[in-house]
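From the shared-data thread, chain only:
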Amino acid sequence: MRRFWLIVGRDLSLSVGQGSPNGHAVVFFVLVVLLFPLGVGPETELLGRIAGGVIWVAALLATLLSLDRLFQADFEDGSLDLLALSGEPLAVVVGAKTLAHWLTTGVPLIVSSPLLALFLNLNVDGYVALIAAMALGTPTLSLVGAIGAALTVGVRRGGVILSLLVLPLYIPVLIFGVGAVETGVRGLGAESHLMILAAFLLVALVLAPLGAAAAVRLNLE
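Structure, as tokens:
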């Protein structure tokens, strides 16, 4: 576990010190949500009705935008080879890098989403469901995205291929994330949607590091 947290700390330090694309993804998320009312109009009732969907779609695209460099920078400078040869299970390395990605991307999305929901006039009854759904859904987005990033590492212009691989897998998280917000707004209780999101997260926690590690190993060979 000490090496796991060392890798997490290393990636966080690089993200803060060098200016990470993850920060650009958060800015992208905020701008998309802020600009959306310009496209549909300032009607508060309409904005409140679509607020959950707008925030979730923007979060999904922002996460996707930041995945391209999850392993690519380490692959280009040889760090990924050293990590693979360190004796640490590659799944642990992948898990640590994915956690760092979520801390620099997912957590800012969760923190900023209530403020953006206020801007979109989301009903106050949906705030708890929104935060809970984002807290459960964004780690799943990072974990699933790590598989796509590992499969496309070393591929020229792999961002397009990454999008094609990952977007279909993101759809269930998007559906139940938006559903949780909508049921929360209606006062019907979002527990069932949140439980499904939690199940997605548990499955991703088990399978995603193993799948991404296998893909990284294949590309390094």
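The mean pLDDT is 86.
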